[in-house]
Amino acid sequence: MIKALFFLVFMTIFGNSEPREYAKNYYSNGTLQSEGWVLQGKKVDYWYYYYSNGTKKEEGHFVANKKCKWWIFYTSEGVIIRKTEYLNDKVNGLSIVYKDGDVVKAEKYKMGTKTNEWTSLSAYRNDQNK
């Protein structure tokens, strides 16, 4: 009985899973545009996007074709300009804005709507201690 139950649980979790595929998409000039994992026709796990000049544009996580967790955005020269949290394809959580490699501000979002902004570490700390 226990072996049969274990087998049923195992097959439910692992037996019906379709394998992921690694996908690559290209610009018309042949340069890589994006790459990442696809499962059942939907983007999953980690993806990378590139400018047509070949430098990284953005990277982050997908769950069922929707952005989630942290995403990093770059200029066309490859410099980080923003790190942003997503949930269900909407900005949700912190978004940290960079200029010339330095943090210039942080923003807080709730499902796509900005709820707060800080331009200094002391202002952020004061809000967190309230």
From TrEMBL:
Protein name: Membrane-binding protein
